[in-house]
Amino acid sequence: MYIIRKKTKIEGHVRVLIGESYREKGKIKQRIIRRVGVAHNELDLERYEKLAVLMIEEEISKKAKADLMLKYDGEIDDIPINKRHLLNVTSGDVSEIKRVEDGIPEVYGDLF
Questions:
Q1: Which residues of 87-104 are buried (b: 16+ CB within 10 A; e: fewer)?
Q2: Least confident of 17-21, 28-32, 94-98, 105-109
Q3: Which of 14, 30, 38, 49 is the most buried (most CB within 10 A)?
């Protein structure tokens, strides 16, 4: 993964993106995996680049966890003890972003 800086049509504005290279049928291709933001000045650009670095680290961590779970077929007991620290998540690490209600309350409202 890498940071892409792309100039916009508006003079002085730079779009900050996160890109990734991958192989498809033996050819190397590139794709944008995340849009970080549009910087209007040098200070914004510096902040967005720091944010992009943090996002890249987070994505790498997520992929490592997913690969680890796939390798051991989703069974935590099968994962070696020296690799289990990759799965440690506490309630302090998790926050609710959006709550989605699906079903009766959404259709009929709160009846009870």
A1: eeeeeeeeeeeeeeeeee
A2: 105-109
A3: 14
* Stretch 54-63: mean pLDDT: 83
Strand partners, 31: 20
* Dist. CA 18–CA 3, nearest whole Å: 5
Helix (H, G, I), strand (E, B) or coil at 12: coil
Q: What is the dihedral of CA 46, 47, 49, 50, to 10 degrees?
A: 120
Average pLDDT, the chain: 76
CA distances from 104 to 52, 83, 96, 98, 99 (A): 40, 42, 22, 18, 15
The pLDDT value recorded for residue 15 is 92
Instruction: Yes or no: say if 48 and 37 are a contact pair by the CB < 8 Å rule.
Output: yes
Gyration radius of the chain over CA positions: 20
